[in-house]
Amino acid sequence: MVDGSSRDQPFEPVAALTHYHAAIDALDFAAIEACFASDAEYVSDGVGAIIGRDAIMAAFRSYFAVYGDQKSVDEKVSAVSPSSAWSRWRLEATHGVAGARLSRSGEEIVRFDAQGRIAKVVVQDDPVAP
User: Fold this and answer.
1) What angle do CA 113, 117, 120 make, to 5 degrees?
2) CB 3.0 to 4.6 Å from 84: which of 37, 53, 75, 111, for a disulfide?
3) Could you tell me which residues come within 8 angstroms of residue 99 by beta carbon, excluding any fewer than 6 positions away?
């Protein structure tokens, strides 16, 4: 399983989500890619729906080429079901060319397949104050 648990242990969606977020924080693209099923779906307010691990990884690489200094924090993580987890997050980053600061927060639900790989990510940003 992706989260490092053995087959004798029940799947822990919180541990798998924490592992995925740690790979993102480390900008470990090989580890991020290993988290996703080949037919995964990534849905967010910012990018719409991205289908397939290759397309998801291209989007991650593109984003981090611009926002390479991103610092994110999970304020809370909990299991939603035996195969999904939820997180409340916030992040700060700087646009690498324009220098503009990016500040976002929101919620994420991650659903895992039977092999412990990410099948679907749904990210919803908090509304931006006017």
Assistant:
1) 70
2) 111
3) none
Using DSSP's 3-state secondary structure scheme, residue 8 falls into coil
∠ CA 44-11-7, nearest 5°, is 135
In tens, the pLDDT along 74-124 reads: 999 999 999 999 999 999 999 999 999 999 999 999 999 999 999 999 999
Q: Decide if 102 contacts 94 (C-beta within 8 A).
A: yes
Name the token pair of 47. 């990018």
pLDDT tens track for 14-36? 999 999 999 999 999 999 999 99
Nearest one of 48, 121, 65 to 89, comparing CA atoms: 121
Contact indicator for 53, 36 with CB cutoff of 8 Å? yes
